[in-house]
């Protein structure tokens, strides 16, 4: 099942995994950012040349008329520098236009492909909204890091490096003054940035909880109306909002202090540079052009250094969000295919449990040394009290969970050694509460056999007695069913699920209360279709309504993970036990005299 390569679990290898196919685009992007980083140095240098030329010509009698020609090339360079800087930014935008959507789509697609391979337990433990939010946050955060933060950070470091060179060229004092400031400023900024990562990480986790709670409430609005719990849900959401507010304020308080310290340090640096400039100018050691060069560089690079460190802070914030999302999404897969797993071949449908041990948690065992054989083509009913293990028994056959020991085999093939996809392709499932996609009815039914023709889909719908209500809809088979099929009644959703299973036509069939949401008339009609569907298939039918199991080949009675009774209806009803107790409890409520004909027989 896991045919895609595993994704890196840490942020740098994760990003590189998606950047690698576009590395030459990234090289071009970095070069453009580096070239743009020389903009201020070139600008300040040309400004120095122009000022020095004007000052020199103005102090020599009779040279005023020759000022304009000597300023021609510096002026052209001054203007060309602006256009070069603009071109570099447009080139970076073009690279982003070409590559960014490909990277973002790849991140979402590969992360989604990994996440949907998580175990059944994973999705029971996680809120749907939280999972979706983490995938989007991961993609958006990496997009911002690559497109926005990276070019500002690269440009800022190039500007600072070029400023060091220019300052040393004018006078070493400026270099050493700026160097000491830059070292202290960078060290303090990196410390503050590192400190902020944990604060941002915690804030991201609280935001994810809020998003998950909102989605959870929205998907349960019907329950909120039923129980009139609008105020309760509002107060429930407030708890997570308060956590998010507290996390935000702790982070922002730290950042205010941190930014204030950065601002004060920049003021100190400019004051030192101004003092040195005035002192050296008075001593005739720097020209008017040097004065302009140093002053403009100090102001500009000081702000760029601040801006660069702010981008690093933003980068750390996105890294914090990415790390939180990676931890939540890329947890190790609980159920995986063994190396070189082969596709299962199901020709008969014999199911065997051999000394199976299974538990959901270490504290409570469900199945212990459970052994049972279900022969090919048998129709087997599963009954028992709630929590007895009926659905778990079916889920283990689907390998939605892994057993602790023992073996489950189909036609002699250990299901833990075959691919999960091929295993489930050979099993049809009709759940008690079917969930539909927010797609058309045609697409939802075709989900059972994706290459089915429209005619095959319609034939399956007719067999499931769904065609009548579908044709009454304005859009017919093209009608959208709403999220999870909310636009349909429970019985209509059930009929779509049955049609889907009919279309799939797998050799093994599992029905989990498949007719529980149907009215009596529709159930009677569909029982015939289901009986035809089960013909020649190994079928497991989970039911609380025992009347649906009267003509099963066998009935397995579960209680606390044990199969307490095994036999036909007539055998089980004749001796005391759980089945007889369940039967007596239902007599007169659901059952007739037991003499009715089997549908279709």
What does this structure look like?
The longest helix has 53 residues. By secondary structure, the chain is an alpha/beta fold. α10 runs antiparallel to α11 and α15 crosses α17. The chain is elongated and about 120 Å long. α18 links the parallel β7 and β8. The protein has a 6-stranded mixed sheet with strand order 6-7-8-3-9-10, sandwiched between helices.
List the helices and strands and how they pair.
Layout lengths: L10 H9 L3 H15 L1 H21 L7 H4 L1 H44 L4 H6 L2 H43 L1 H47 L2 H7 L2 H53 L5 H42 L21 E8 L8 E8 L4 E6 L5 H8 L7 E6 L2 E2 L5 H6 L1 E4 L10 H6 L7 H10 L3 H5 L18 H15 L3 E5 L7 H15 L3 E5 L11 E6 L2 E6 L1 H5 L4 H9 L15
What labels describe this entry?
601 residues, 20 helices, 10 strands, 6-stranded mixed beta sheet, alpha/beta, single chain, disordered C terminus, 4-stranded antiparallel beta sheet
Reported for the largest beta sheet, the result is: 6 strands, mixed
Task: Output the strand order for the largest sheet.
Answer: 6-7-8-3-9-10
Mean pLDDT: 82
How far apart are the termini? 40 Å
Number of helices: 20
Query: Which of globular, elongated, flat, extended, rod-shaped describes the shape?
Result: elongated
- Report the uncertain regions: 588-601
The Cα radius of gyration reads: 36 Å
Tell me the β content: 5-15%
Give the proportion of residues in helices. 55-70%
Structural class by SSE content: alpha/beta
Question: What is the compact description of this entry?
Answer:
This protein has 601 residues and is of the alpha/beta class. Helices cover 62% and strands 9% of the residues. The protein has 20 helices and ten strands.
């Amino acid at each position: 099942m896991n045919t895609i390569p595993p994704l890196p679990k840490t942020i740098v290898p994760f990003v590189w995994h998606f950047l690698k196919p576009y590395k030459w685009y990234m090289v071009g992007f970095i070069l453009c950012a580096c070239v743009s980083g020389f903009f201020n140095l070139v600008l300040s240098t040309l400004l120095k040349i122009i000022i020095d030329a004007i000052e020199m010509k103005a102090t020599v009698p009779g040279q005023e008329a020759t000022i304009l020609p000597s300023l021609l090339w510096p002026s052209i360079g001054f203007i060309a520098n602006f256009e070069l800087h603009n071109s570099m930014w447009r080139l970076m935008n073009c690279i982003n236009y070409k590559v960014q959507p490909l990277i973002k789509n790849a991140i979402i697609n590969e992360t989604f492909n990994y996440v949907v391979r998580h175990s059944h337990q994973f999705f029971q433990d996680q809120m749907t909204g939280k999972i979706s939010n983490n995938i989007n946050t991961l993609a958006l955060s990496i997009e911002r890091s690559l497109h926005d933060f990276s070019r500002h950070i690269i440009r800022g470091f190039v500007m600072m490096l070029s400023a060091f060179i220019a300052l040393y060229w004018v006078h070493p004092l400026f270099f050493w003054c700026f160097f000491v400031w830059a070292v202290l400023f960078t060290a303090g900024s990196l410390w503050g940035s590192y400190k902020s990562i944990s604060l941002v990480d915690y804030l991201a986790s609280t935001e994810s909880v809020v998003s998950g709670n909102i989605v959870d409430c929205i998907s349960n609005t019907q329950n909120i109306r039923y129980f009139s719990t609008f105020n309760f849900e509002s107060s429930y959401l407030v708890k997570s909002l308060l956590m998010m507010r507290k996390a935000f304020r702790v982070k922002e308080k730290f950042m205010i202090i941190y930014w204030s310290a950065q601002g004060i340090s920049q003021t100190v640096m400019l004051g030192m540079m101004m003092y040195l400039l005035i002192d050296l100018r008075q001593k005739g050691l720097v020209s008017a052009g040097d004065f302009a060069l140093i002053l403009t560089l100090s102001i500009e690079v000081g702000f760029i250094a601040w801006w660069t460190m702010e981008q690093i802070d933003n980068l750390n914030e996105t890294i914090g969000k990415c790390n939180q999302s990676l931890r939540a999404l890329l947890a190790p897969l609980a159920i995986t295919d063994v190396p070189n797993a082969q596709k299962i071949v199901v020709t008969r449908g014999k199911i065997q449990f051999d000394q199976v041990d299974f538990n959901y948690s270490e504290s409570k065992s469900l199945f212990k040394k459970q052994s049972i054989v279900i022969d090919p083509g048998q129709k087997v009913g599963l009954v028992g009290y709630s929590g007895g293990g009926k659905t778990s028994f079916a889920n283990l056959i689907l390998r939605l969970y892994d057993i602790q020991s023992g073996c489950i085999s189909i036609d002699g093939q250990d299901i833990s050694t075959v691919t999960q996809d091929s295993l489930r392709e050979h099993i049809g499932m009709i759940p008690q509460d079917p969930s539909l996609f927010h797609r058309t009815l045609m697409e939802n039914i075709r989900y059972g056999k994706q290459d089915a023709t429209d005619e095959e889909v319609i034939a399956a719908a007719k067999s499931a007695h769904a065609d009548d209500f579908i044709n009454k809809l304005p859009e017919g088979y093209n009608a959208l069913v709403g999220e999870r099929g909310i636009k349909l009644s429970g019985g209509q959703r059930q009929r779509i699920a049955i049609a889907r299973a009919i279309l799939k036509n797998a050799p093994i069939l599992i029905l989990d209360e498949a007719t529980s949401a149907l009215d009596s008339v529709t159930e009677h009609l569909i029982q015939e279709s289901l009986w035809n569907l089960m013909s020649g298939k190994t079928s497991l039918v989970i039911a609380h309504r025992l009347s649906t199991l009267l003509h099963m080949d066998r009935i397995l009675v579960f209680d606390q993970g044990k199969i307490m009774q095994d036999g036909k209806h007539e055998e089980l009803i004749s001796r005391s036990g759980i089945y007889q107790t369940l039967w007596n409890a239902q007599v007169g409520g659901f059952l007739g005299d037991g003499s009715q004909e089997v549908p279709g027989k």
